[in-house]
Amino acid sequence: MAFDYPAPFLQLARELRRLPGIGPRSAERIALWLLSNKDARPGQLSAALSTAETAIRPCSRCGFFATDDLCEICLQPARGGREICVVELATDILPLEKTGSFRGLYHALGGRLAPLDHIGPAQLRIESLQKRLLTENPVEIILALSADVEGEATTNYLVEILEPLGIPLTRIAHGLPAGGGLEHADQITLLRALSGRRPVAER
Amino acid sequence: MAFDYPAPFLQLARELRRLPGIGPRSAERIALWLLSNKDARPGQLSAALSTAETAIRPCSRCGFFATDDLCEICLQPARGGREICVVELATDILPLEKTGSFRGLYHALGGRLAPLDHIGPAQLRIESLQKRLLTENPVEIILALSADVEGEATTNYLVEILEPLGIPLTRIAHGLPAGGGLEHADQITLLRALSGRRPVAER
Fold this sequence. Notes:
Two copies of one chain form a homodimer. With 203 residues, chain A is of the alpha/beta class. Chain A is built from seven helices and six strands, in the order αααβββαβαβαβα. In chain A, α1 crosses α2. The radius of gyration of chain A is 22 Å and the shape is globular. At the A-B interface, α1, α2, α3 and β2 of A face α1, α2, α3 and β2 of B.
């Protein structure tokens, strides 16, 4: 008869294994560490998980992580009535925020159009975006979606339904990434970099 | 003003970062996944942690993970009165068990002698080993400690105090690991492999 770890141990390893980037060996190693290392504080991790799960919800306006009805960003009075930057996921907001160059509000769609996965406009936060545009009356709508096929399709769909509103509509630039040499860029990136070229004087 | 994730999110990421093999970026990625992915079940992971923490304790006899006073291995009646295999950590037991060739009991010391870290014989489960040997009267004591300096020192100490008991005392073989070519083995491994050579007929 072969022995194994007790059932609560195996259950913990199974749950850890579901985390992204954690394989079966890492999961076992982490579970062993949590249960046998003096410095491990499994209770604190457990509490942090429960607290985060109950305390964090999507901001009712933009979809970013919030502990109240509105998130920290939406609560800033100086941010309203300016640009609204449309992104796919709540997790796209902080990277943009960290550039330090955007002072408007965000709107996370919660994904992008993917007909094969049965995700159409009704599954995304598009209706709430349209309502926001009517009441908030931003000076510009910036579309900041992924530069892949589904992101493009979603951008095109949004352009179609948002253009009639008469609000200035822009999309973020596609081109050569910072530090990227021409020899490493793929054809589509180069094509977009070329077609998006701007007069030198404009800078 | 730069924004960041809400406090409960940051607390969760901090706790995740303490896990072995999880860096700051992985911790943030896992926290984002736990709080925004539909398939994530943070509550279940939290519950598994609490359950494992409260349900799992060291076996009072051998130190392996147990949910009762004795572990599954010690509860097997056929295992008593045979060999006792001494290992450093409870986590060393299952790898030996998986070889399928050992049918005795184990004894985890809880570490090895490390004077610089103030770990002497009193900090290890050596006294309880001596008591076990008197009452259980095993046919053999097998020392299966690490093949490094501290493991060797601990083995030598155990040999010194256990030899007077008159119980056959052995230690696991050191030599070339399975699949290891001579050209990749270090000098000490080769030295031990040479000095541990056995007559061909013995097999």
